[in-house]
Amino acid sequence: MSDPLRIIAQSIGTYPNDSKFLERLAAICREHDVGLVVVGMPLTLRGAKGAKATEVDQFIERLKTKLGIEIVTWDERFTSRVARQTLIDMGTKKKQRRTNKGLVDAVASALILQSFLDQTKHSVGC
Fold first, then answer.
1. 21-120, what's its fold?
2. Domain parsing of the chain, residue ranges
């Protein structure tokens, strides 16, 4: 989630992709008056869409139907690796990083959003 001025991204946690996920996300969007959702797109090293990207495209169609707000994709290559390194730099214990995958995912999602905010702050009316 970003701040109201759309300058700084921060994680609000991770949620299981279960039967209640879309409902949870819709409630968060309503609660925080979200007008745009950024979804990480798992591109190949060459920047092309692979099998996982096709799954994400299908997921985005479900999101659009449920949320009724704008959805954009953003390149997520290397964000998990950068997130792990960030956690190391912050002094997070190896065991905690290994056993709490949600922690790495939360940091990676904030990195994706921050990259989007940084790259679009002058070109998108966010």
1. Nucleotidyltransferase; domain 5 (3.30.420)
2. 21-120
Q: What is the pLDDT along the chain (126 residues), one digit of tens a residue?
A: 999 889 999 999 899 989 999 999 999 999 999 999 999 999 988 889 989 999 999 999 999 999 999 999 999 998 988 988 888 899 888 888 777 878 889 999 999 999 999 998 865 544
CB 76, CB 40: distance < 8 Å? yes
- Stated pTM of the model: 0.84
How far, in Å, CA of 107 to CA of 109, rounded? 5
Instruction: Give every CB contact of residue 24 below 8 A, 6+ residues apart in sequence.
Output: 15
Write the secondary structure of 31-100 as one string of H (helix), E (strand) and C (coil).
Answer: HCCCCEEEEEECECCCCCECHHHHHHHHHHHHHHHHHCCEEEEEECCCHHHHHHHHHHHCCCCHHHHHHC
Rounded-to-integer distance, Cα 9 and Cα 93, Å: 24
Nearest CA among 123, 111, 125, 122 for reference residue 2: 111
